[in-house]
Specification:
There is one protein chain. By secondary structure, the protein is α+β, with helices and mostly antiparallel strands. It has 19 helices and 28 strands. Strands 16, 17, 18, 19, 20, 21, 22 and 23 form an 8-stranded mixed sheet that branches. A hairpin with a 7-residue loop joins strand 27 and strand 28. Helix 6 packs antiparallel against helix 12. GO terms for molecular function: protein-disulfide reductase activity.
């Protein structure tokens, strides 16, 4: 019995098969029986017939495409096995390699009815989604319902022959043992343990892996026969995820002109690659703790020179100048409080970071800036600090949690919160020595990781700590006077600039409508502060607090939006994906890959100073270097895996692949025009 219906309908049939005509293909649910007996099994088939010159996809679609999704609805106790796919073919598309079927293909399953099944019929429901492509791709979907009567015996149906034909196109079970071994990020070795004589008869071999991460799909596969059997050497993509299984289909061409297709269930050998995308392994074994601690200390020291912390450090400098002439003990207390603020904040951020990574999150240094709500709250805090320093808002009672009651004030409390703020705004920056130290910290136990982060914080606090404990240095500070009010008001502008930068970062993460919401929230917050300043009566303060609550509600509401980063139209830069990079490397030309984020000031400085220069761009064009950009403004597990594979916990990361080379040159975190151009021009090879 066959029933064909138009797309959008809800086909139903009693027995045999049901078909659906979609826009660019038709699909049919087949059964090998017209009725089924309890305790028996029945073969089912899902046949996809795309238009001429269109194709559908295998279990692993390769570089692009999508496997078919089958969602079954069955009576209690009745089960359907995992799908068996026919042997796929290679579907090259430009630099990509996909796996699938030109023309009709049937996926097979086995329906099992338990012996104790007491119903009079088995109702089979199927919601299916499949993708067909020519040049463009068109998703297809449909609902299929078949009812099989339950009888004393299973009665073969008219589609049994069709299903037998489909079974002949399945790969045979392998009669050889096999093993898949990952050779780091660059290669996979598949060993099929056949006899040397059998291996010698193979004239061609190709492996279709069922799991992502085994091979670079577009790369050629080579094989050789030996005493251990047949060995295939397969290229593997840099940063590829660890595969879940070594299963796959091996196709063989033999000297007598015949061919074989076998389903291998290869053992997946222990690999040197990291267990998860968030587990960098390169640094962990290569660096002793003392070296990591030293790198962290030096990195923290240099962090004071990064542009992120300038606005906050100027506050601390102002605070110290204001205290000139006070007792040495006062300075030492401020220095210790400032250090405590930095260390506790580093511990807090590191603790959250380590806990989230332990839970499997693919995050790294600066992860909090990947959350729009954190960016928005920081922007509002900078606005409050700026208004306070400019003298437009004076919060002296009740809300010491903001404004000059904290970082802008003097004393131990002000010093402590200056340290807190300095650490929070420092996270978008990185510095020489920091990358390896943070990468090391994230591969160790929690205790060692926290010690490393503490050394990073100590390095950052050290200059002010030394200054506060040096009476001779303190005596060199200018004496307090009327100039300080002017200086204080001038410090408001770095705060406003920081707020504007954070709004820009927010806009890149959430889009224009949400950014308008944040600006509105900042306006409402400023209005709330103005109301607060107008009086101390309960009604006035209540109105101010209510208005401030509205502002925070606006922040929460607008921070839920997300937009994906895009490469600007007309820009020849390629957006990073493992598949895109593999395609460019397969072409054999030189490739420069850089990983950045809109909140990473170090990245932006590097791009402005070294990468976006006319002479650098001219060199890139002259040498035909393809440029790939990985944008980590929002979380991206694929990029996190690449960072981890190179022992980094955050951006920036710069990789250069010379022509024909798959092991990249890793450039330093801080770029100089000469250093970058030397690498791109081949004058520096490591």
């Amino acid at each position: 019995m066959a029933l064909a219906v138009l797309a959008g309908g809800a086909p139903s049939a009693l027995g045999a098969e049901v078909s659906l005509a979609e826009s660019h293909s038709s699909a049919t649910l087949l059964t090998a029986a017209d009725s089924v007996a309890p305790g028996d099994a029945v073969r089912l088939g899902f046949r996809i017939a795309p238009r001429d010159h269109w194709h559908s996809y295998w279990l692993n679609p390769g570089d692009s495409g999508q496997t078919t999704i089958l969602d079954w609805g069955l009576p209690e106790g009745v089960t359907v096995s995992a799908p068996d796919y026919p042997v796929p073919g290679k579907l090259p598309v430009g630099p990509l390699m996909n796996y699938g079927y030109d023309g009709e293909a049937t996926i097979l399953m086995t329906l099992a009815v338990p012996k104790e099944f007491a119903g009079s019929e088995v109702k089979i429901g199927l919601d299916a989604e499949w993708l067909v492509c020519e040049i463009e791709c068109v998703p297809q979907m449909g609902r299929f319902d078949i009812t099989l009567p339950v009888g004393a015996s299973t009665v073969q149906g008219v589609d049994a022959a069709t299903i037998r034909t489909a079974e002949s196109k399945l790969p045979e079970p392998a009669w050889w043992d096999s093993r898949v071994a990952l050779e780091g990020d660059t290669a996979t070795i598949l060993t099929v343990m056949m006899s040397e004589e059998e291996a010698a008869e193979v004239t061609d071999a190709y492996f279709y892996p069922a799991s992502e991460g085994v091979v670079d799909y577009a790369a050629p596969q080579t094989f050789k026969a030996g005493a251990e059997g047949l060995t295939l050497t397969l290229q593997r993509s840099a940063g590829a995820p660890r595969p879940e299984t070594g299963r796959g289909i091996l196709t063989l061409s033999l000297v007598d002109g015949t061919s074989l297709a076998m389903m291998l269930d290869a053992d997946l050998a222990a690999a040197p690659a990291p267990e998860t995308a968030s587990a960098p392994a390169v640094i962990a074994d290569a660096m002793p703790l003392w070296q990591a601690a030293l790198f962290a200390l030096l990195g923290g020291l240099v962090l004071n020179l990064m542009p992120c912390v300038f606005p906050i450090l100027s506050l601390k400098a102002f605070s110290l100048a204001k205290c000139a002439g006070k007792a040495d003990a006062h300075h030492r207390i401020e220095g210790l409080a400032y250090t405590a603020g930095i260390l506790t904040t580093f511990l807090g951020i590191a603790g959250v970071l380590l806990a989230l990574r332990a839970g499997g999150a693919a995050i790294g240094w600066g992860f909090q800036l990947q959350e729009p709500i954190f960016v928005a709250l920081m922007a509002m805090l900078m606005l409050v600090l700026g208004l306070s320093l400019a003298g437009l808002v004076n919060i002296s009672t009740g809300l010491e949690g903001a404004g000059q009651g904290l970082a802008a004030s003097g004393g131990a409390k002000g010093a402590y919160f200056t340290g807190v703020l300095a650490t929070l705004v420092a996270t978008p920056c990185t510095a020489p020595f920091m990358g390896p130290a943070v990468g090391f910290a994230l591969t160790q136990s929690a205790a060692i990781g926290l010690i490393t982060f503490l050394m990073l914080g100590l390095g950052m606090a050290l200059p002010f700590l030394v200054l506060c404990f040096s009476p001779a240095a303190m005596k060199r500070l200018p004496k307090p006077g009327p100039w300080m009010n002017v200086f204080k008001e001038a410090l408001a502008f770095p705060m406003f600039a920081t707020a504007l930068w954070l709004v820009y970062v927010f806009s890149q993460q959430t889009g224009i409508p949400a950014t308008f919401g944040l600006l509105l929230a900042m306006l409402v917050l400023a209005f709330a502060l103005w109301i607060w300043r107008t009086g101390s009566r309960g009604f006035v303060r209540g109105l101010a607090l209510a208005t401030g609550a509205v502002s925070l509600a606006l922040v929460v509401w607008t921070s839920g939006a997300r937009v994906e980063p895009k490469v600007a139209e007309g820009d020849s830069t390629v957006a990073y994906s493992a598949a895109a990079l593999d395609g460019l490397l397969a072409d054999g030309g030189p490739v420069f890959v850089y990983f950045t984020a809109d909140w990473c000031i170090t990245c932006k400085v590097n791009e402005r100073v070294a990468l976006d220069r006319d002479d650098t761009q001219a060199l890139i064009a002259e040498r035909g270097i393809k440029v790939v950009k990985g944008d980590w403004t929002n979380r991206n597990a694929e990029i996190a895996a690449v960072l981890a594979a190179h022992g980094r916990a955050g951006v920036p990361l710069y990789l250069f692949y010379p022509a024909g080379v798959r092991n990249p040159i890793v450039l330093p975190e801080i770029l100089t025009p000469g250093g970058l151009q030397d690498v791109l021009a081949g004058r520096q090879t490591s």
